[in-house]
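From the methods appendix. Each design record in this collection lists the tokenized structure first, followed by the designed amino acid sequence. Records were kept in a plain field format so they could be parsed without special tools. The example shown here is representative of the layout used throughout.

RECORD:
FOLD TOKENS (756 positions):
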């Protein structure tokens, strides 16, 4: 077993009155597990205890052995609300059927990385979650040992039962919970051996599944409070514009309208972190009794907008200052494309250089060059942005869907003029995030509105508000070149990638380290169209481009695409170019998923009429390889099957992980094939789903198989890694099926729609 420090100091264990039925507990007074309505709902399946005993901030045990486990991180559909408590429960050694799960509120003094982003929810909390369960298990064992006057080393804890074989004594956790709450927190605890896991590695149903399918209130839009008003915003119609003036008299006279005013979120001297960011700092607010009334009143506003001058702002990103420039003017997609092509032909910033690529290209017998592009994308979460706030003179309660509660807390504090300890942020389940809810300006907006009207308020965005407000996936462009000698050997590789406003380049990822002469360059284009993280940032484009080009290189060399990639990875593993540590990837693990997908897809035993494409990529510390099968039906390509191989370390909940794989595959095919956001005079040309194309049910693969590499490595990312490579697999399969290469997303503009 592994010994670790508990990291739970005595200050985290404060005696207070019981939260449910009296009794002594240890922990935090804000824990409100099993409120009356929750208990009532659960009573059908689990008998609720009369008393709770809180062992630490992650869990408390009822007098009947039922355990409430808090899930600390935001739930955006990745199923962490189930998987994180599974980790605690396994180390606690409790029967899963006796576990009640609740969403924890924000508490930065206890929980680490209370963020849904970067596919880090499980990986960043893995040790802390295990420690919380193991600590509670040890305290229960010590309580039993004290009660029975036996050595604690002789106590076993299995499935919520404490036993002492020699004396024949046994007790359920509930019987010892009160005594355990009085035990001193151990300085060090033993974690289980991986081979002893009984819950981790097994599939468990989504703890919210029944409530989701039966329509129970779980999401931000479901929040209802007595006296609650509804608010909505009006932002400039085009990027590069700002508010000048407005006339709200007509709107104020409409039924149900309480107030119309403008707000400025941040003072000019406020130093924002990147996730405090908002596309438009000054907005017009309409507040009323109902969503319908507010949305109608917005149409009656008479607003004058004016053009912005050039803006330079300073933001912090994980402690590092960065300057951001927003040029004046109304931008157009046509000029964006022209600018990206122009910069591709010019010198760019060298990010990595191995060998002498210039000489290799100069002396090459043959050179192939291909360019790839993708447009801006809107996140289009199923649930538009929304949040609830009730701000009083000395306290603020906020509730809603956010990926970054701990990063937004300081901005809310600044705007309200309240200290952090007077701000309570709680999280609902979220109807999608994909990076959009990393930018929690809507929390600041609703807090400022609630303070202004002195009432509880729910802020609601319309779909059009959501799609035209900004924070899109950037537009990217990349050009790849490969040089060959007279024997058709690959001698040099060059990638030049840029974007608006960021580059998608990862200079030290594959195939860096596998080619003697290698050059990676990047460039950026400033824009006033505001962008941000989108599922698997930057990887979501560059993976598809890279993997498409590698297929062309393999074809040029007359090699099987998987064999070719494995040859490069063998070089990177056994005789890497440059320092092995400079490469961002583990070549052996990378090769492992390719070998696994080759086996599971029966790669070289293709059925007649099936056209296959392969792709593999590393991001968020995980490795994914995918094979996509297309068949032609009535001269149209149909995705028949996707086979995926994934190395993400220990898989906590296999069903949940497979769901993430399947979702990433469908999402990636949809965006590569159909989606795009274009601009004319600074205005998005797609403001709703009548013009913005998403994948449809009938267009999804008929079958998706996911196979996980068996591993004892601590868990790595899972939500994002399956998304980027599928775009390359799709492009490669389309080529095999139609004879046409696809270089520019969305592919539907280059060929007939993909149907299923």
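DESIGN:
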């Amino acid at each position: 077993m592994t010994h670790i420090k508990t990291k739970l100091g005595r200050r985290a264990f404060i005696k207070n009155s019981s939260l449910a039925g009296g009794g002594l507990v240890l922990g935090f007074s804000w824990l409100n597990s099993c409120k009356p309505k929750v208990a009532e709902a659960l009573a059908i399946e689990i008998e609720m205890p009369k008393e709770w005993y809180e062992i630490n901030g992650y869990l408390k045990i009822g007098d009947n052995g039922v355990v409430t486990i808090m899930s600390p991180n935001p739930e955006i559909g990745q199923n962490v609300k189930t998987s994180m408590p599974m980790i605690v429960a396994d180390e606690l050694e409790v029967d899963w059927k006796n576990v009640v799960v609740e969403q924890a509120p924000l508490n930065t003094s206890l929980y680490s990385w209370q963020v849904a982003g970067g596919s880090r929810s499980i990986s960043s909390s893995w040790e802390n979650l295990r420690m919380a369960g193991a600590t509670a298990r040890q305290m229960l064992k010590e309580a039993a040992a004290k009660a029975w006057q036996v050595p604690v080393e002789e106590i076993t804890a299995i499935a919520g039962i404490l036993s002492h074989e020699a004396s024949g004594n046994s007790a359920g956790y509930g019987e010892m919970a009160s005594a355990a709450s009085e035990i001193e927190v151990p300085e060090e605890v033993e974690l289980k051996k991986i081979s002893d896991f009984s819950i981790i590695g097994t599939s468990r149903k989504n703890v919210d599944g029944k409530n989701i399918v039966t329509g129970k209130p779980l999401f931000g839009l479901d929040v209802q409070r007595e006296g609650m008003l509804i608010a909505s915003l009006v932002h400039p119609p085009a990027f590069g514009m700002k508010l000048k003036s407005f006339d709200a008299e007509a709107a104020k006279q409409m039924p149900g309208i309480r107030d119309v005013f403008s707000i400025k979120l941040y003072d000019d001297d406020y130093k924002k972190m990147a996730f405090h960011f908002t596309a438009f700092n000054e907005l017009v607010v309409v507040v009323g009794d109902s969503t319908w009334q507010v949305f109608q009143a917005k149409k009656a506003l008479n607003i004058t907008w004016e053009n912005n001058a050039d803006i330079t702002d300073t933001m912090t990103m994980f402690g590092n200052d960065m300057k951001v420039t927003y040029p004046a003017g109304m931008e157009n997609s046509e000029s964006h494309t022209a600018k990206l092509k122009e910069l591709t032909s010019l010198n760019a910033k060298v990010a990595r250089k191995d060998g002498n690529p210039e000489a290799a290209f100069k002396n090459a017998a043959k050179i192939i060059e291909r360019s790839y592009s993708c447009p801006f994308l809107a996140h289009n979460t199923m649930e538009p942005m929304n949040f609830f706030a009730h701000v009083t003179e000395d306290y603020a309660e906020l509730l809603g869907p956010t990926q970054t509660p701990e990063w937004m807390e300081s901005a809310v504090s600044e705007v309200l003029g309240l200290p952090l300890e007077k701000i309570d942020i709680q999280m609902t389940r979220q109807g999608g995030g994909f990076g959009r809810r990393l930018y929690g300006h809507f929390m600041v907006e609703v807090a400022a509105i609630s303070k202004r009207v002195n009432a509880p308020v729910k802020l609601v965005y319309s779909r059009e508000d959501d799609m035209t407000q900004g924070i899109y996936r950037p537009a990217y462009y990349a050009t790849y070149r490969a040089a060959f000698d007279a024997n058709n050997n690959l001698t040099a590789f060059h990638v030049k990638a840029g974007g608006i406003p960021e580059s998608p380049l990862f200079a030290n990822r594959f195939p860096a380290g596998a080619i003697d002469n290698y050059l990676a360059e990047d460039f950026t284009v400033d824009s006033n169209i505001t962008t941000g993280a989108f599922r698997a940032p930057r990887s979501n484009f560059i993976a598809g481009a890279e993997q498409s080009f590698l297929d062309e290189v393999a074809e040029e060399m007359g090699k099987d695409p998987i064999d070719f990639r494995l040859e490069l990875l063998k070089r990177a593993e056994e005789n890497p170019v440059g320092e092995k540590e400079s490469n961002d990837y583990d070549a052996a693990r990378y090769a492992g998923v390719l070998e696994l997908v080759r086996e599971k897809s029966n790669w070289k035993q293709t059925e007649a009429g099936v056209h296959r494409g392969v792709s593999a990529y590393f991001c968020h510390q995980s490795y994914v390889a995918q094979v996509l099968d297309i068949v032609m039906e009535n001269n149209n390509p149909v995705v028949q099957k996707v086979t995926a191989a994934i190395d993400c370390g220990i898989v906590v909940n296999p069903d949940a992980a497979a769901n993430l794989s399947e979702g990433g595959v469908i999402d990636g095919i949809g965006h590569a094939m159909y989606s795009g956001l274009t601009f004319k005079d600074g205005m998005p040309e797609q403001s709703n789903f009548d013009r913005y194309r998403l994948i449809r049910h009938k267009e999804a693969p008929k079958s998706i198989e996911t196979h996980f590499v068996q591993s004892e490595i601590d868990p790595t990312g899972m939500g994002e890694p399956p998304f980027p490579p599928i775009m390359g697999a799709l492009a490669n399969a389309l080529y095999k099926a139609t004879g046409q290469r696809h270089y520019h997303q969305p592919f539907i503009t280059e060929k007939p729609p993909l149907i299923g």
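APPENDIX NOTE: Residues 61 and 67 are 5 Å apart (CA to CA).
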